[in-house]
Amino acid sequence: MILIFALIIFLYEPNTPTQPIYAGSSAILEVQEKKTPYEVIEIERFFKSYNSILADYAQDFYDLATNEGLDYRLLPSIAMVESTGGKNPPSCAKFNPFGWSSSTSPCGFYRFESYKQAIKTVGEGISRKRAYDRYKQSQEIGVLAEIYNPGGKEKWAQDVKYFMEKFN
Questions:
Q1: Residue 114 above 70 pLDDT?
Q2: Average pLDDT in the 90-107 region?
Q3: Alpha helices in 19-152, H assignment, sequence order
Q4: CA 44 to CA 47: how far, in whole Å?
């Protein structure tokens, strides 16, 4: 009878991932909690230190970097250089913290529907577009700057490096 009661409570009560679940008198089962990767915590900490809304998207930044083979610090650092972490995006493209330009947009900047879309589009663009092949091979920010911001490439590369070093 006690075992049936314990089973009913187990099935109907939400469990907290860190508490052991007792089944009978001798078996103990532990529900494993999914660990947050260190990089996600670092991205969130980085953006929070600048009071940036992008802290809420730390997992998205990490997932994109992991899936596309990018340094996890790159896109957050570009966002800091281009829009102070999303605080000052182009007025015509509020979800564009990367200053990602577009020749088809009336205002010259790509208009994303969300930060998630911006992270995905810019990250995939850097990792997949042919124009970025030299950067992918060298992993040098200066090479990336030649494509991403050719008009002010030295200062841009220096600034991106500065923010990337804030992770260390």
A1: yes
A2: 88
A3: 38-49, 58-68, 74-83, 115-128, 133-138, 141-148
A4: 5
Higher pLDDT, 122 or 6: 122
Residues in the chain: 168
Letter for the amino acid at 142? G
CA distance 68 to 65: 5
pLDDT of residue 25: 52
Is residue 54 within 8 Å of 97, Cβ to Cβ?
A: yes
> Can you tell me the distance from the alpha carbon of 35 to that of 17, in angstroms, rounded to the nearest whole number?
11
Quick: pLDDT tens for 130-165. Answer: 888 888 888 899 999 988 988 899 999 999 999 999
Give Cα separations from 133 to 125, 144, 146 (angstroms). Answer: 11, 9, 12
Strand partners, 101: 109
Please state, rounded to an integer, the average pLDDT across all residues of the chain.
Answer: 84
| 26 CB-near residues (< 8 Å, 6+ apart) | none
The residue with tokens 């493209």 is 93
Distance between CA 109 and CA 81 in Å, rounded? 16
